[in-house]
Design a protein that fits this description.
CATH superfamily of the largest domain: Phosphoglycerate mutase-like
Strand content: 15-25%
Protein name: Phosphoglycerate mutase
Radius of gyration: 19 Å
Mean pLDDT: 90
Number of helices: 8
Shape: globular
Distance between the termini: 37 Å
CATH architecture of the largest domain: 3-Layer(aba) Sandwich
Organism: Alkalispirochaeta sphaeroplastigenens
CATH topology of the largest domain: Rossmann fold
Number of strands: 6
Keywords: Glycolysis, Isomerase
GO molecular function, one term: phosphatase activity
Number of domains: 2
Low-confidence stretches: 164-169
Strand order of the largest sheet: 3-2-4-1-5-6
Oligomer: single chain
């Protein structure tokens, strides 16, 4: 399984908006959260609400919302879209949850450096592959691809719902997906060819800020080559990477994004 084989199964165009959750209480304390559940801070709620207003101003009206099962992601999705979990457009994808951070969970990185110096030293070279109990690259590449499969299934469901008279030039359906900084690395890496068989290295990392928006625009390509052999492919473009609501939209009582 690869990103390429998954995306050739697209039935129609779609824009995926992958969004990291807003600031959580764990983020504010500077600890490694992993799978631990924590609500948003007031700042995180403000980030999410403003991101929702910004996307609405851009004309983004989600046809579907998919989220990690963790509270900080589900709360962010609700504040961005205004949709409750009971809304039929909303659903949880378990594979969108954060990576398991093993024995570093609940510690700040500085605390981990002091209390687990050997593990921390290896962590600086090999990232989470070096941390006992943490989720490694092979598992993360596999899980990211399963998440992409679920997102394509969501997009194809929207294509099946469209009426025959819908104009091909009409708006492209939007799917909002709220997840976590660690998994976002692998959603991007798999889009550039990482697989469980060839997971690539952790580095380089891609910055994923709280409520950073990553937009991937996709469309199927059905054509023939110069020998009239059928081609089944896709066009894809990352058009936003870690983009956030502009500074002027932020409430002055909160620090602006940096």
């Amino acid at each position: 399984m690869s990103f390429d084989t998954i995306m050739t199964g697209l039935d129609g165009p779609v824009s995926f908006y992958l969004i990291r959750h807003g600031e959580s209480q764990g983020n504010a304390r500077g600890i490694v959260q992993g799978r631990a559940d924590a609500p948003l801070t007031d700042r995180g709620r403000d980030q999410a609400a403003r991101t929702g207003r910004w996307l609405e101003g851009l004309g983004v009206h989600p046809r579907a919302v998919r989220t990690s099962p963790l509270q900080r992601a589900r709360e962010t999705a609700r504040l961005i879209t205004g949709l409750t979990p009971e809304d039929p457009r909303c659903d949880v994808i378990t594979d969108l949850q954060e990576l398991d951070t093993g024995i570093f969970s609940g510690y700040s990185l500085e605390e981990a450096r002091k209390e687990m110096p050997r593990e921390y030293q290896e962590f600086t070279a090999r990232s989470w592959d070096a941390v006992p109990g943490a989720e490694g690259r092979v598992a993360l590449a596999d899980r990211a691809l399963r998440a992409w499969e679920a997102l394509v299934e969501t997009a194809n469901g929207l294509s099946r719902e469209d009426s025959p008279e819908d104009s091909p030039g009409g708006s492209v359906p939007a799917v909002i997906c709220v997840t976590h900084g660690g998994l976002l690395q692998w959603l991007l890496k798999t889009s550039f060819g990482a697989t469980p068989e060839d997971p690539r290295e952790w580095m380089p990392l891609i910055k994923a800020s709280n409520c950073g928006v990553f937009q991937l625009d996709l469309g199927p390509v059905r054509a023939v080559d110069r020998q009239d052999r059928p081609l089944r492919w896709f066009h894809a473009r990352w058009s936003r990477l870690n983009e956030r609501a502009p500074l002027e939209t932020w409430d002055p009582k909160f620090e602006p994004p940096v």
